[in-house]
Amino acid sequence: MEHGIEKVRQRLIRVASALRAAGVSYAVVGGNAVAAWVSRVDETAVRNTRDVDILLRRQDLPAARVALEAAGFTHRQVAMLGQGGMMDIFLEGSDAKVRDAVHLLWAHEKVRADHPSPAPDVDQAEDTGEFRLISLPALVSMKLNSFRDKDRVHLRDLMEVGLVDESWMKKLPSELASRLKEILDNPE
User: Fold this and answer.
1) Of the candidates 9, 3, 37, 15, which has an alpha carbon nearest to the alpha carbon of residue 88?
2) What whole-number distance in Å separates Cα of residue 35 and Cα of residue 64?
3) pTM of the full predicted structure?
4) CA 20 to 30 Å from 19, out of 27, 107, 163, 182?
5) Residue 165 pLDDT class (50, 70, 90 cuts)
6) What integer pLDDT is reported at residue 82 of this predicted model?
């Protein structure tokens, strides 16, 4: 178990280092971003994740691809299950699986057509020293946009440590606020 957790962390650090060295703007999003925010309040409340999600500007894909391929990753496009579209990923090694890949999400674009709003820009991030972490407001919006089971779990994790509460309702567009209210009203 520890080896699996460490593999994901090392993959994240390798990706961040390669992108930083190449001057490519990015932000860590998804489960790793939730874990980073939660760990600032309570390290024992951190939930592990199996993949790495990176937010990029689409025009930076060529530079990101050069940087990540030089770091040993292989670029692929894979079908998005149930979406009809394609997703750009980077695999680490010949035996890598899509589920533990580096997944790219595009700034200023909807991740899925049915999302209420597009993903934020990569400049809505801060440097943690190890990687660029998406801001908490941008992360919460992304999780409310997706609103899958795992996104609701991630939102509950943020709520459990006090990072998200009722006060967020005023900060969100109405559709996202109603989704947050659903979780606040039924946290279990």
Assistant:
1) 15
2) 24
3) 0.94
4) 163
5) very high
6) 59
The answer to whether 65 and 26 are in contact (CB under 8 A) is no
Phi, psi for residue 175 in degrees, rounded to 5: -65, -40
Tokens of 151: 């996104």
Residue with tokens 């001057």: 23
Q: Name the amino acid, one letter, at 138.
A: A
Q: Of 157, 167, 183, which Cα lies nearest the Cα of 39? A: 157
Structural domain span for residue 111: 2-135
Residue 169 lies in a domain: no
Query: Residues 45-88: pLDDT tens digits?
Result: 999 998 999 999 999 999 999 999 999 999 999 887 655 578 99
Q: Within a domain: residue 79?
A: yes
Q: What CATH number is given to the structural domain containing 108?
A: 3.30.460
